[in-house]
Design goal:
Number of strands of chain A: 11
Mean pLDDT of chain B: 92
Helix content of chain B: under 10%
Largest interface: A-B, 25 and 25 residues
Strand content of chain A: over 45%
Helix content of chain A: under 10%
Shape of chain A: globular
Oligomer: heterodimer
Largest sheet of chain A: 6 strands, mixed
Order of helices and strands of chain B: EEEEEEEEEEE
Order of helices and strands of chain A: EEEEEEEEEEE
């Protein structure tokens, strides 16, 4: 079946550098994507979303890029800070699916001092 | 979280016991969801409800039950039929299919 996956389970970056977290999806019909941040022992926190009619969307220090040609989604975090250390995962919505959102397993981002 | 509360934060279950996890929201969202999260894995959908008095099974509904008598509340019961209940349980709400889901702080269930 279709699923959301992540290229790397862990990512370490130096404080102040930019981070890029990737997500591959296999369902070309998916029309809505969300990035979540989950700190240890807490519930996931919404970061940013994007619909399939867009290629790029920017938030505060975060940018999501959507490449529908290769079914790839990425989250860019500018000037990564220690508070950005968390698990990041993407979710996709397939139109007409009763499954609601489908979630990837996540990437652990560690910010090094 | 914010407008979504889950209680308790930690819950201990004895073998053969049913336990109920609470989820309450004041966001006026129509849809509510229950997910299970195991270490190193993604979220798996247990049950969801689009409107009051209606709910649907997700991918791993066996051993669980829910009710949706009020818009604000969607309790999850982990029954004795669930043989491996130890996990982090997350409640979410949203405006419906194709919309953002917002999560509560979670309940960690442990088996004694």
């Amino acid at each position: 079946g279709e699923s959301v996956g992540l290229h790397l389970p862990t990512l370490s970056v130096q404080e102040g550098d930019n981070s890029i977290i990737n997500c591959a999806y296999s369902n070309s019909a998916s029309d809505y994507f969300i990035w979540y941040k989950q700190e240890s022992g807490k519930g996931p926190q919404f970061i940013i979303d994007i619909r399939s009619n867009m290629d790029k969307r920017q938030g505060q220090r975060v940018t999501v890029l959507l490449n529908k040609t290769v079914k790839h989604l990425s989250l860019q975090i500018a000037a990564t800070q220690p508070g950005d250390s968390a698990v990041y995962f993407c979710a996709e919505n397939m139109p007409g699916s009763a499954r609601q959102l489908t979630f990837g397993s996540g990437t652990q981002l560690t910010v090094l001092p | 979280d914010g407008g979504i509360t889950q209680s308790p934060k930690y819950l201990f279950r004895k073998e053969g016991q049913n336990v109920t996890l609470s989820c309450e929201q004041n966001l006026n969202h129509d849809a509510m969801y229950w997910y299970r999260q195991d270490p190193g894995q993604g979220l798996r959908l247990i049950y969801y409800s689009q409107i009051v008095n209606d709910f649907q099974k997700g991918d791993i509904a066996e051993g669980y039950s829910v009710s949706r008598e009020k818009k604000e509340s969607f309790p999850l019961t982990v029954t004795s039929a669930q043989k491996n209940p130890t996990a982090f349980y997350l409640c979410a709400t949203g405006q419906g299919r194709g919309e953002t889901q917002y999560f509560g702080p979670g309940t960690r269930l442990l088996v004694l």
